Amino acid sequence: MKKLFIITFSIAFIAIVVSCNEVKRKPNNVYVPDMAYSRAYETYADHSNLAQEGINYTNLPVAGTIARGEEFPFPLTKDMPGDTVNYAASKLIKSPIDSLSKKDYVEAERLYLINCAICHGTKLDGNGPLYKGGDGPYPAKPATLVGNATYEAMPEGQMFYSVMYGKNLMGSYASQLTRKQRWQIIRYIKMKQAQNNSGAAATAKN
Amino acid sequence: MILIRSIIRPFLLGSIIFFIFSFGNKVKAQDGKALFSQNCASCHAIDKKLTGPALKGVEDRWGGDRKKLHAWIHNSQAYLKTGDSYAVNLFNENNKIPMNAFPSLSDKDIDAILDYVKDWKPATTPAAATAGSGAPVQEGDNTLLFGILTLILAVIAFILLQVNSNLRKLSDSKEGVVSAEPIPFWKNRTYIAFVVIVLFLVGGYYTTKSAIGLGRNKDYQPIQPIYYSHKVHAGVNQINCLYCHGGAQDSKQASIPSLNVCMNCHAAINEYKGEKIYNEEGEEVNGTDQIKKLYEYAGFIPGKPWDPAKAKPIEWVKIHNLPDHVYFNHSQHIKAGKVQCQTCHGEITKMDEVKQFADLSMGWCINCHRTTQVQFKENGFYSIYEKYHEDLKNRKIDSAKGITVETIGGTECQKCHY
Question: Which chain B residues are closer than 8 Å to A20 by Cβ?
């Protein structure tokens, strides 16, 4: 009797201890679920059945909407496969941004480092951590933005085309950067190229 | 003697010529590599199809005719017009993406590149070198050991108590004291009271703990539809958090990247070659298979142009979840407050599978608001708090404690609950 008691007690104890060490794959229970989970439609909730329920919810702004402070849309569409007409035409499009204020320069640099430097390198040398001189996981060599005649001569409009629609293996960054941010980053690249060429540290215009 | 000299002379001459030749060859191959990485590597790899085809064996495919290749590389569009059937097929097979013209490359340069491609050998994979590292050693947890020790001590105490009572009974009967009929221990009031108290304590502990833990999910680590390793992406490959979760700086939500963000890199990266990955259960995870899963969701076939319209969203499992009655805004913390992601999410760059780092309880929020100093420096968002600036200057506020989030109203109820 005594032994039986001890054995069952120890087994139960060990079971409790062991079960505590498991990876927590399931969420905990909640107290008052209607206060914990939103009754309203939150971001990333299932929106697929809204139309059936008669809820008029539009996911995207009306076509042609321009956000406050945003630049005008890029006038060219993406080329069809095998066509380069618009890519060539993009050379003629002027950037709406002539110069960067000191604050904008810092912001453009920050955005460059987050979005571009991973491939094109913090020094704009086409050798970011994903390429690492061919040792990184990225198989293609990213463009050398500073120190390569092709990219130094490339007009800003054409750069914008590549950032907006993608070029070769580079994808489109239209979803990650606003038009204004894209023009700012391109201006930043041009300033870096000019700095490299003049040799002197060009200061951002104020 | 003459015979020997007559043999040695041509031998010497030959070896000198050989050395010059091989040295010259080496320089050429080096040039080829540099030229390749400058001009070709954006679109071509040697053993892998990228935007353009893999270059291995390119000369054989062109029938060994370097002149044709020279013409093609100098200006592929002009060469296409000659109607060469192989060139036309090549153009069509590669989705009609025209190859850039390279008029500046001389025939010699192109030969150097072709020689480099011909002599190229795949580097030994680093994965093989690290293969011996084996599965990660499980961290020892002492809870079980302590539990067993406590149990053994409890049993010993119980036995000693029994022995004690038996001894007393023996000594009593020796001295002739009539003792009462011994009570079995499960009817003994002391034992019953002891067990009840222990049960009450243990039960109470777990009841309270689970009641407090309702709705809290520290260490929650669900299985995601794709084994996505944050360690590989944000740690090893140094991708900024905001590259994928850009919403964290502009909006309430940190935003989960849509498939086009994944495909920015994974249109080209279709295999995993890094160190071995293990899931929480200790099983090895094949990274390349996980990338294939991504391609299934994206509707992407390697080598073909990707049509984003065919993609199906991946339903990731949300880990960090605040109750609906709490308002939390990412941009307020990241952009205005300049808080690092890791402050609340832990060392994401070292987690293969993400787990909830903080318990996200109200006490945890409030504690941080009480101790975190507001970063006024170069932060236009807080320029209206000039009074505090003056007070600090005039030593009205203890500068060691500084101005915390609490000072500017960070613990007001309505800040988060409304």
Answer: 143
| Domain at B19-122, CATH homologous superfamily | Cytochrome c-like domain (1.10.760.10)
Distance from CA of A68 to the nearest CA of B (A): 14
Nearest to B298 by CA among B289, B307, B287, B286: B307
pTM of the model: 0.74
d(CA B228, CA B351): 10
Indicate the helix (H) or strand (E) that contains B62. none
CB B98 within 8 A of CB B135: no
What was the ipTM of the complex prediction? 0.82
Residues of chain A with pLDDT under 50: 200-206
pLDDT at B133 over 60: no
All domains in chain A, ordered by first residue:
85-198 (1.10.760.10)
- At B257-304, the pLDDT tens digits run 989 999 988 988 888 888 888 888 888 888 899 999 999 999 998 878
Our CA angle for B258, A159, A89, nearest 5°, is: 110
- The ranges assigned to domains in chain B are 19-122, 182-214, 230-360, 369-418
Least trusted range by pLDDT, from B14-23, B65-74, B176-185, B353-362: B14-23
Contacts of B38 in chain A (CB under 8 A): 144, 148
Cβ burial of A23 (10 Å; 0-12, 13-18, 19+) is middle
**Which of A2, A13, A36 is the closest to B324 by Cβ?**
A36
Residues 6 or more apart in contact with residue B344 via CB below 8 angstroms: B333, B357, B358
| A75 and A179 Cβ atoms separated by less than 8 Å | no
Element of type H or E holding B326: none
Angular region, B136: left φ>0, alpha ψ -120 to 50, beta rest: beta
> In terms of CA atoms, which chain B residue is nearest residue A41?
B324
B237, B281, B319, B418: which to substitute to probe chain A, counting the most A Cβ within 10 Å? B237
Region of poorest pLDDT, from B12-16, B287-291, B313-317, B394-398: B12-16
Contact (CB<8Å) B144/A28:
no
To 10 degrees, the CA torsion angle through A84, A87, A91, A93?
Answer: 130
- B7 — pLDDT class (breaks 50, 70, 90): low
Given a cut of 50, is residue B130 above it in pLDDT?
no
Other beta carbons less than 10 A from residue B261's beta carbon: 20
Mean pLDDT check: name the lowest of A127-131, B87-91, B367-371.
B87-91
Q: How many CB atoms lie within 10 A of CB B382?
A: 17
Say what angle helices B107-119 and B2-35 make with each other, to 10 degrees: 100
The CA distances from residue A144 to A53, A87, A110, A126, A151, in Å, are 53, 19, 19, 4, 7
Q: What angle do CA B62, B39, B292 make, to 5 degrees?
A: 80
